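Example record

The entry below shows one chain as it appears in the dataset: sequence first, then structure tokens.
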Amino acid sequence: MSADMNPLRVLHSFPLKLGAGRISTIAWYQVAGVAAAGADVTVFPASIVRSLPSEVEVGTTMARGRFRIPNKLLGRIAYARLHDHIVARRLEKMAGQIDIIHAWPLGSLETLRTAARLGIPTVLERCNAHTRFAYEVVQQECDRIGVPLPANHEHAYNAELLGREEEEYRLAYKLLCPSDFVVKTFLDKGFPRDKMVRHIYGFDETVFHPDDKPREPKRGLTAISVGVCAVRKGLHFALDAWLRSPASRDGTFLIAGEFLPAYQQKLSEMLAHPSVKVLGHRQDVAELVRNSDVLLLPSIEEGFGLVCTESMASGCVPLVSEACTDICQHMDNALVHRVGDVASLTEHITMVNNDRALLAKLRANGLRTAPNVTWSAAGVRLLDVYREVVSKRSAQPRSHEAVNAG
């Protein structure tokens, strides 16, 4: 940042426990990364479990000292609404002190309305595809393979949640999309392209890095799946492709993650194959990925696929669906197939199993890509996006905000 530029003043509102895992980890790295890039950041999380850099001002909404209101006490929607209300009340007193607000789904409806009235531009994080799209494609696939979704599952249709999120989409000045796939799901639902702005997620290079030991070219291929074992991640496609490929004869497919019980039962016959190792939830994911040759992630719906960049940085080649991050480039640093295309995924597994020179090339290119997608790089990109949004909003008439606040 040049010396004559004042730091951008950012308010980051996060309606969950910051730093606790999954999207809570993404939010933590975003706050830390954009602060390191030069922004003046205030974060209002529901609560926080991992300390942030000292220059970040933290004001929890659902915790005081050691006392914390549990999410389960109020329920997901009521908890988010209370957080949102508290942030909106605080925002009233901060007019003139904030340049942009970074909000998250479900916990920002009142905040977005207040920001619009005060003339503060807002960006709404879209950590996944359009929620209506996600509901539709996950339910269709569950019906196709005969796996019921529990009523409380995050991808089970919830009209109240969907209605609230869709109103947030409308009120936000811009939607922050981490991949072209996410952008497409909004375009397909009728949103104008200029409503969306692109940013990226990253990986922590202190955790994910390659093993410098040479790889034995004649050993069996080691594949890995990482994350929640749910229908949307397409593990059934991965297992089918793996067992069709000759790689399953002397290779190993590691599955690290917790299963939806009905899904595990549905896949039990494939999971029982001697080449498949079900590991359950693991704390040593970085080491597992570092020691694997390929990542299998044939998702039917994704926001970004953090494990893709984490795998690249670890020297593990992503074999993924087109729903995953566009950082994965086919035949450059990854092999990419159409959603649900088991034949192509089978072919890709077989290619890297039989052609270790190709595997080495993809691995080397992935390692060259990785420095561009660290969380530090993501923080710099996010700050650039903030500046672009503030600049565009400043050039528009105030009437836009009045319409959104209506």
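Notes for this example: Confidence is low (pLDDT under 50) at residues 400-406. The first strand starts at residue 9 and ends at 18.
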